[in-house]
Amino acid sequence: MLLLISILGSLFTTVHSIPLLGTFSTADIHTWDHPAVTNVEAFDLSCHPLGSNLNVAVGLTALSEGNDYDLICRAYAANAKPNGAGFTVRLDSWLSSTIPYAEAGWFGVGGADANDYQIGRWFNNLYGSGRIPMQNQQRVWFPTPFAQTPKIAVFVNAIAQWNGDNFRFETVADGADPYGFNLHMNAWAGTQMIGAGATWIAYPADKKLVANGQDSSWNYRPWQNPAVFNGRYVAFPPGTFQSPPQVYIALQSFDVDRVPGFRLRASVTGITAAGFTWHCDGFIDGLNPMSPVIYGAGISWLAFA
User: Fold this and answer.
1) Which of 85, 103, 252, 298 could bridge 61 with an S-S bond, Cβ 3.0-4.6 Å?
2) For 188-220, how does the pLDDT look when each residue is reduced to its tens digit (9 = 90+)?
3) Would you list the domain boundaries of the chain?
C-alpha cells in the first residue's frame, strides 16, 4: 500500500507535458452591478505542474464596457509559481474605468511542449492616456528561432478605446519567417484608440495534432447587416485529428456600435475530430438591457490533442 501511494504521489507531481486550458470570469468574483478595476483569480496546478519553463497565453473571450462607457481592459498572466505549479490571471482596467463583466481564456505550456510552442504578448501605450495611431505594427522576434517558418495564432488580450465612435479592432499576423513576424493591431473609420494588446502563440508548421486559424462574420455577411449572434462551423484540415481535440479561442476582431454599447462573448460548441462551431455573440445585462449592434466579430482558434 505504501508503495502504491508513493507511485501515485510521483505521478501527480510529474511535470505535465500536454498544454492546459482554463478560463477566468469576473462573474466568479463579483456581479455585473459591482464592477471592479482589478480582477484576479489564482490557478493551482500543483497536481499537474507544467514545469519551470511555464508560459501562458491569455486572450479576451468576453467584455462589457465600464461605467464611463469607454472600453478598457487588459487580460494577462502573472505570479508564476516554481515548477509551473500555478499562476494568476488578471482582468484589469485603468483610467478610473471599471469592468462590470469580462472573461479570459488561458493556454499554458511547459515541459516538453515548451520546446515547440513559443508564446508572447505586445502592448501599445497601455495605462497611458494619449491616443495611438489607428494602424499599429510591431516586428516580433521569437526568443528562439524556428528551423522553418512556424504557424502563428494571435488573440486580443487588451483594448482601450474612447466611446466617441464605434468600437472597432482587429489583430493579425503576417510576414512570418523563422525569426519573427509582423503583428498588427488596427482600428479603422475614426475609432479612437488609446491602447491595445495582443498575445501570440507560434509553433512548428510540421507539428502533429495541432492546427490554428481565424474566422469572422465578415467572411459570410456584410457589415451593413448587423447581427447579435455570429458564428459558423469550421472544419479542421483533413486528417489532423482522430478524436475531438481541445480548442482554445479568444477574440480576434470586432466592430460594435457605441450605442447601445459593447457587450461581446466568444465561445465554441460541437467539437468533433472534424471541426467545431464558433460563436461571437452579443448579450444584455442590467447596465444596458438593449442588445448591442454588432457589425462584425471574429475569433482566433488553436486546436490540439
Assistant:
1) 103
2) 998 989 999 999 999 999 999 999 999 999 999
3) 2-304
